[in-house]
Write a structure and sequence with these properties.
The chain has 630 residues and is α/β, with parallel strands linked by helices. Helix content is 49%, strand content 10%. The strands form 4 sheets. Strands 6-5-4-7-8-9 form a 6-stranded parallel β-sheet. Strands 13-12-11-14-15-16 form a 6-stranded parallel β-sheet, sandwiched between helices. Helix 18 links the parallel strand 11 and strand 12. It starts with 8 loop residues before the first helix and ends with a helix. The structure holds FE(4)-NI(1)-S(5) CLUSTER with Oxygen and iron/sulfur cluster (SF4).
Length: 630
Amino acid sequence: MGDFRLTTIEEFEAATDRLIETGKKVGADSWQLRVKNQTPHCKFGEQGICCRICSMGPCRITPKAPRGICGCDAHGIAGRNFLRFTAGGAATHSDHGREICHTLHTVAPDGNYKVKDPEKLLCIAKEWGVETEGKDIYDLAHEMSELALLEYGKPYGVQRWLKRAPEHTQKLWRDAEIEPRAIDREVSTAMHMTHMGNSCKAEALVRQSLRSGMSDGWGGSMCGTEFSDVMFGTPKPVDTEANLGVMKEDMVNIIVHGHDPSLSEMICDYSEDPEMLELAKSVGAKGINVAGVCCTSNEVAMRRGIPMAGNFLQQENVVLTGACEAIVVDVQCIFPALGPLSKCFHTKFITTSPIAQMPDSDFIRFDSKNAGENAKKIVRAAVENFVNRKPELVYIPQMKQKATVGYSTEAIVKVLDGVTNSYVDVTGTTKPLIECITSGVLRGAAALVGCNNPRVRADQAHIELMKKLIANDVIVILSGCSAQAAARAGLMDKEAKNLCGAGLKRVCELADIPPVLHMGSCVDISRMVVLASKLAKDSGLNISQLPLVGCAPEWMSEKAVSIGNYVVATGIDTFLGVEPQVSGSDQMVWWLTEGIRDWVEAAYTIETNIEKLGDAMLARIEEKRAALGI
Ligand code: BF8
Ligand code: SF4
């Protein structure tokens, strides 16, 4: 096993402290300082009982003022806030998915974007009942993109992808009236319901929250994931590295940050362009190094092995190294702080999307039609910026770990089943995994997902929970910033098998996998619900009977709440390490942690003590096993 060891949180923090020192020299701000300025937070906001939905308000609920001016109580206010929060997340993921569908419409054999996984496209077409016989693959791609785009606005019917779920789950959704109709409609309905003078009943607001979340996970996000795979390839295991040490002092460093792979894929392509490499040499650099931050990083790591510089709360750190020539962003989870921060260094902060426009950035508008040309422009700007580095400010913490990533559902089925053609709904089985679980070699599986949040010591909850779960023979699947926390710590190194219980260690050895599996970005949580559905179908059990749990220990975004809602609605108990902003309403808390179980056979558990959160997850897994008699 050589000298493998995990990188500790203390080491992460020491590196960050050292970078903040550099920042101080140039007058840079940091999130650590801003957290101090924003603490303590507004209690009304934290509890979800401040309403500013109409201009008679804002109204805040106190024991003396138990109702807003219109008469809405704490339950209605917290419920409406929760639904709006969810709708924000569903809109965001789904719009990302929509962009991918539009990009699919531009694929051409000699175009910027191509069909890289024709087999997957054919399988989805069959699943959707589209004739494929004798059709040119590019014509089929265009036809599928149009059908997918209709999922956003169709006047009748529910989402096509729902059929991937077991019959039992589909029936629960129908009975609870949470089958999502058109994706945009569920967001729109959420906004309508929460307008002044509409719903203020917790039950109704929670129901629509689940339905809006479903329109994301079983709608827009699934479009995003599936059609990204068609264009950029379905991920398979690939080796990479993670943490700031992946940045290179003698090379041009381009950081890709955001979510949509349409941009980052092109940047990666042009960073290998001979003309750009020649240009890099001419400015004294050894080459061009692309590394990622946030979910964009997950996308290009999974498909190309591009190294992962960091997750959400590391985004400022990449600039603070003084060695970042350009940080190129598309949409979501981008700190506006990067604008002023980049001005303290030579870094170019390049925004590319009309959706995410920020002061102090260079805006190079990127779309599928100008993708090649503008990606080249961006790479060129980064390379030419190399000469502006200030060597006295350069410090790259020499800290990185090896990671094997790229476990799409197809790849997981393949490594565990050994079947060659393993498109999830066509061939291949999860039976070997089920056997490992029923025999007790594995106790169960946990999905760890979501962000960092300064309310929790950054990355600690992710890493500590993973260590605990794998030591207890629970296999862990990951996405989003949770996945990057794991990779940076070293948990995606296959050598991490030595931290597992005996059963999981054996599985890792036999299947040659790390104990925590990288399933992608946050939109790729749609892969996880498909995997859960497959496990249920292959085992003949309901999803809610499987010893599976979901957890977002450090979540922060609206997207995370939308995800939580569709994961729980899929029948998977979901554990949160940060409180959702509903605590001012005992009814809302009850609906989320108990009431919804009657509809979807799963509910939330909220626990901010990470030790207790881990215990609760393990206990739930064991309860499920006991109920099955395994
Ligand atoms: O979508 S995990 S901080 S990067 S929201 Fe954002 Fe949260 Fe990271 Fe990706 Ni997901
Ligand atoms: Fe106040 Fe009601 Fe208006 Fe909300 S909708 S701000 S509770 S008056």
